[in-house]
Amino acid sequence: MDLLWPAEPARAPRRRPAARGERLLRAGLALADRVAPAVAEWEAARLFTTPRPRRPRDPVVEGVDASPRAFVAAGFPMVGWSWGEGPAVLLVHGWNGRAADMAPLAGALVRAGFRAVAVDLPAHGRSPGRRTSVAEWAAALPALGEQLGPLRAIVGHSLGGAAITLALEAGLRARGAALVAPARRPHEYVARLGTYLGLPHRLDGIVRRIETRVGRDLDWFDTTRAAAGLALPALVLHDPHDDDVPWSHGAALAESWPGARLVPTPGEGHYDILGADVTLERVTEFVRGLDS
């Protein structure tokens, strides 16, 4: 399993060197657990905020030229791409994701007459950095939104949906938000991490180290808390059988968000949902329906 929140598995089978590396990691943590527990806890916190390395890939929207962009938002440099003309819609990928993941949605929105903008978030894709957190994303998105001008909507996938919710609470301005398979909170993923690393008995210490690293109490990341105070329209799409981020996360977020609409997308999973016809149609319809 992946170590981070959400626990997004690699798309290809793991190779033997990676498996050996993971065994060595757990062996080293077992030793640290016995002789220096604080070191083991800090290492777990470091892993929780370290995305899996992936080869950068520029997003491609068939038939539409991309305009590369460079941004610095709240001190975080990011690489982005823009397509089309019209009211702006910002697209936000998930943990271990890339702007390229959002290309199907960008294409649908451009064909509907909107300007789509997607970025590689800090420590992802072509954007610099080795470690990051949703706290950083939630700080960067309001500043990024200001640079893009009035946003018609903002669309996020998985942990990107969580970041959007927290960023809206922090001052991000948009007429509406569409969340695709959004994550609710990190608590269960921290527990999974502790178990995977052989440190379930160190869970409280790991949580404290993560909170110190990201500068936030873990409860702050619960998106149902943030959503309860939001007033803008929201659309939530989620597969009831999502194996990576449970349906209960999206359902709880939609229930907490006043006036949000929850749309089940059975059979689309956690990744294929981004290019599914139901997603492209519902998101485009939602963005079109926002008041001008």
What does this structure look like?
This protein has 292 residues and is α/β, with parallel strands linked by helices. 40% of the residues lie in helices and 16% in strands. The protein has a domain at 67-185 and 220-288: 3-Layer(aba) Sandwich (Rossmann fold). The protein has helices at 16-35, 37-48, 103-111, 134-148, 159-169, 187-196, 203-214, 223-227, 247-256, 277-288, and strands at residues 67-73, 76-83, 88-92, 115-120, 151-157, 177-180, 234-238, 261-264. Helix 2 packs across helix 7. The protein is globular. It starts with 15 loop residues before the first helix and ends with a helix.
Question: What's the tally of helices?
Answer: 10
CATH uppermost class of the domain at 67-185 and 220-288: Alpha Beta
Identify low-pLDDT runs.
1-16
* CATH topology description of the domain at 67-185 and 220-288: Rossmann fold
What percent of residues are in strands? 15-25%
CATH superfamily of the domain at 67-185 and 220-288: Alpha/Beta hydrolase fold, catalytic domain
Descriptive labels:
292 residues; Rossmann fold; 8 strands; 40% helix; disordered N terminus
Give a brief description.
The protein has helices at residues 16-35, 37-48, 103-111, 134-148, 159-169, 187-196, 203-214, 223-227, 247-256, 277-288; strands at residues 67-73, 76-83, 88-92, 115-120, 151-157, 177-180, 234-238, 261-264.
Give the secondary structure arrangement, pairings included.
Blueprint: H1 16-35, H2 37-48, E1 67-73, E2 76-83, E3 88-92, H3 103-111, E4 115-120, H4 134-148, E5 151-157, H5 159-169, E6 177-180, H6 187-196, H7 203-214, H8 223-227, E7 234-238, H9 247-256, E8 261-264, H10 277-288
Parallel strand pairs: 3-4, 3-5, 5-6, 6-7, 7-8
Antiparallel strand pairs: 1-2, 2-4
Helix pairs in contact: 1-2, 2-7, 3-10, 4-5
